[in-house]
Amino acid sequence: xxxVLFGISxxxxxxxxxxxxxxxxxxxxxxxxxxAQQIQAIIEQHGFNKPLWEQYIxxxxxxxxxxxxxxxxxNGLPTYEVFASRFPYTVELTIAATILTIVIGIPLGIxxxxxxxxxxDHIARLVALTGYSTPTYWFAYILQLVFxxxxxxxxxxxxxxxxxxxxxxxxxxxxxxxLPILDGILAGNMNYTLDALAHVILPAFTLSFTSLGYLARIxxxxxxxxxxxxxxxxARSKGLSEKIVICRHALKNALGPAMTxxxxxxxxxxxxxxxxxxxxxxxxVGDLSLQAVFQGDxxxxxxxxxxxxxxxxxxxxxxxxxxxxxxxxxxx
Amino acid sequence: xxxxxxxxxxxLRARTDDARYALHLVRQNVLVLAGTLLVIFYLVISxxxxxxxxxSIAYKFDFAQSYCWSNSVISWGKNIESCPVGINPVLGTDxxxxxxxxxxVLAIPVDISVALFIVAASTILGVVLGAVAxxxxxxxxxIILRITDIFLAFPGLLLALVFAAIFGRTMQNxxxxxxxxxxxxxxxLIRGQVLSEREKNYVEALRALGTSRTRILFNHIxxxxxxxxxxxxxxxxxxxxxxxxxxxxxxxxxNPALPELGNLAADGIGHVFTAPWLIVFPGLTILVIxxxxxxxxxxxxxxxxxxxxx
Lengths: 332, 310
Description:
- By secondary structure, chain A is mostly helical.
- Chain A has 13 helices and 2 strands, in the order αααββαααααααααα.
- In chain A, about 70% of the residues lie in helices and about 0% in strands.
- Chain B has a single domain, classed as MetI-like (MetI-like fold, Orthogonal Bundle), CATH 1.10.3720.
- The radius of gyration of chain B is 24 Å and the shape is elongated.
- Classes of the chains: A mainly alpha (about 325), B mainly alpha (about 300).
């Protein structure tokens, strides 16, 4: 785990600092108010005049001291603060997308399995495959076009096309958790909560559309495997209704792989929402990372990559533990 | 000698029977058939694109005709009659005033060839590294696995973005960027296959016969792991097209006029509500190509998986 984090930091660090770029690397530790002397001091202090491998050690020292430098493209705020203030938005989007994925993906997979090779299986398969064959940005724009633009022109109730909260409502609720929906609930502000909910629907559906296809396919495969087992035949021969056989006996055993996948998806969604956030102007870290790429802010990218990697690793661990919980046969 | 040839012919018959049965399953499965036909269709378009459309029109700009739509079948919710009289592009024109349909035809071979190249390259890389990791084991295995761990724990698109941003937006760099994201999956897949395969009885028998390790690996183990690799590669062609075009869409195109599906869609970013066709049709083309490859891959997985088969 430490090794992976170390490897990632080394890789991005080398990519970011080891090649000539339009931005001098020390700009990340400098604010606009500093004069030439102070900048020179910064260069010395962070070892920018030293060879690359020594710079990495200096960088590691800064990181352990909590110093990630400044993001001059984001009003010169400390990079860490920029990241921390936007990260909750990505978390909210990811949670919403995960819920949608599970709610749609698992029933779709079950339907596919119990109607194996029938028409509904083919339709479910087509939906699932279309889900993960769809370019995210395209789907996002189609949703915007239909649910925002056309609904609006037709005078129907429409969904907002960008942002996480309406500009008129922004800042009316104190940010306790940073997640707009949760903040609205905590403040007891119904208007705010509903507005935040309306904003999250389209981006969350866009994100989940890709993963629910995968989930449905996995659920189908493991469900088919389980349905062939003897104990299912046994349950059926006892005269249990098909509903109980599927929901209580088969599903529980078939959900293991699905859970693994959901855990991994949540983790990768957390890091991979770049395109969706970009199209919906969602104020999360994915959209910011794109700006950071263009602005050459390597510290932001390092922070982003490390946090995501950490989450992916933790998700893997949680899934393993959850697996043991769900399936008592698994022992460690 | 005679005995050997009889065994060979029996083996051959078993294999052809197997293949015939697989073909029968393909024919039975409407979706796989549809996917296959679509892929063939797009491959034919890719091969003949330069004859269907004059390639040089990609760089003939006519800004007087940009964002025009004159097809009366779709109205886009309002009446757009901005095309000069006498011009009738079926799918409208883009910001450079080029016929969008022709541009899509020119873009299809670019995307498909890039995707096929990336998948082929990462498969070869994966077969070599995965086979070495699985066969040699020990320290080598550990090192290769740790490296793939690093790549797999990295948010995929971000790595490609960083790479493309640093090394500049050339076609070559974008291909390397996507390749960088893609190869670890294959190493993992093939290593797992090699590990499970080398424990089987026939490998034991070959070892007992004194066959060399490299010969067992390349002549026996790898050919026997070809099916899962085939499925994964087919499924990945679509995935690569999606990733590559997403990079282009996010503004990493080497040239804004390049006929590439993601790049064509990127042209419509600021005009979603006024010129929706710019995103709708290139995106739809990507969707259909990707779906076609995924339909084949998904069907192949079912057909080649003996557990789900009979």
